[in-house]
Amino acid sequence: MKAQTLLAIAITALGLAACGSGGGGSPIDNGRNSPNPNSPINPNDPNPGGGNPPPPPANQRTGKAITLSSNGYQRISEQALSFTQQNFGVLKVDGQELNIIPPNMSAGGLLNMQARNTARVGQVMTQSSYGYVREGTNAQGYMFSQGIVTSANDMPTSGTFNYSGYAVHAAMSNQANTQVEAGTANFNVNFGNRTISGRLSPANNAEVVLDNGIINGNSFSGTANSGTKFSGYFYGGHADEMGGTYYKQGEYTGAFGTQKIVP
């Protein structure tokens, strides 16, 4: 890899504005309209990502982080997240507080900012946040989803809804300069049948199909036909947002965040 730092800043058409010494970027265009930005998980589960995680109490601020190696995005471990403040712009993990959005910037859409020793790829929404964060030379990275889960009383019990947003995807690689990719995420949720399925389209990677998902209270999980395990939660009032993490052993790890599309 060349010695100089590589920096790529990509945002949705909703925009990224630098509040400090200046900044720039270009919108992500995947041929689809950008979703409205107003719109996690039991690390001790013997089948992480699969099975049904227990529903958390109402208004619990919770989530999950998957730790990845500094080189090659090897999946190392998983851990539960919890926080008391409604500050989804900070990831508290392993005794660290990592900013999802840099302090001198504000983002209304998906931020994709990667350099040699740091990476911030993700989005802060109204009730949740998701993405990938790494900071420092040889530092481990974290793929995560976190937020305020929907209370049991506010969960829909009927109807089918589409959820649209973005996914952050890290393919395992032996190449030192491989970067995390972003792409669209689209899900179909049937609250009556308690099923969920989705398709993720990370740039420069094959589409990831997440099928066979089961809703359990305000959480969901499943193991797709491809072997990909995924899990997550519904966030905010009336399941307005939905996000989670996924991985396929030996191939890739990712996170996604979406918003309910109301007709």
Q: How would the blueprint of this fold be written?
A:
Layout: E1 8-11, E2 16-18, E3 26-27, E4 61-68, E5 75-82, E6 90-93, E7 96-99, E8 105-107, E9 111-114, E10 118-124, E11 128-135, E12 141-148, E13 160-171, E14 181-190, E15 195-202, E16 208-216, E17 219-223, E18 229-235, E19 241-248, E20 252-261
Parallel strand pairs: 1-3
Antiparallel strand pairs: 1-9, 2-8, 4-5, 4-12, 6-7, 9-10, 10-11, 11-12, 13-14, 13-20, 14-15, 15-16, 16-17, 17-18, 18-19, 19-20
Biased composition (Pro residues): 37-58
Region (Disordered): 26-63
Domain Transferrin-binding protein B C-lobe/N-lobe beta-barrel: 155-260
Structure description:
The chain is an all-beta fold and 263 residues long. It contains no helices and 20 strands. An 8-stranded mixed beta sheet has the order 3-1-9-10-11-12-4-5, with no helix packed on it. It is globular and about 50 Å long. It starts with 7 loop residues before the first strand and ends with a strand.
List keywords for this structure.
Transferrin-binding protein B C-lobe/N-lobe beta-barrel domain-containing protein, mainly beta, eight-stranded antiparallel barrel, 263 residues, Porin, globular, TbpB_B_D, OMP/PagP_B-barrel
